[in-house]
Amino acid sequence: MMTDQKFEVKGTFLMGEDWMPYTKVIAAPNENQARERTLAVIGSKHNLKRRYIKVNAVKAVSAE
């Protein structure tokens, strides 16, 4: 079984008329899944469509 790594995902999302920055640490098996899970989490929390969420960077963080 593949274990999840931790990824730091940075980007912006639209809040009203302003693009707000976010940084999230997401557990996922790979970068694509980390990106998908971030879109899902922010989208459901703020009731946003994916086009209003931008992912600028995804990088693995060492689990400590």
Main attributes of the structure:
alpha+beta
Chain-wise SSE layout:
Elements (H helix, E strand, L loop, with lengths): L4 E11 L2 E11 L2 H16 L6 E9 L3
Antiparallel strand pairs: 1-2, 1-3
Helix content: 25-40%
Number of helices: 1
Distance between the termini: 21 Å
Largest sheet: 3 strands, antiparallel
> Which series of helices and strands comes N to C?
EEHE
The residue-averaged pLDDT reads: 93
Strand content: over 45%
Low-confidence stretches: none
Main sheet: strand order: 2-1-3
What is the structural class? alpha+beta
Explain this structure to me?
With 64 residues, the chain is an alpha+beta fold. The protein has one helix spanning 31-46, and strands at 5-15, 18-28, 53-61. The radius of gyration is 12 Å and the shape is elongated. The two termini are 21 Å apart.
Short description:
With 64 residues, this protein is α+β, with helices and mostly antiparallel strands.
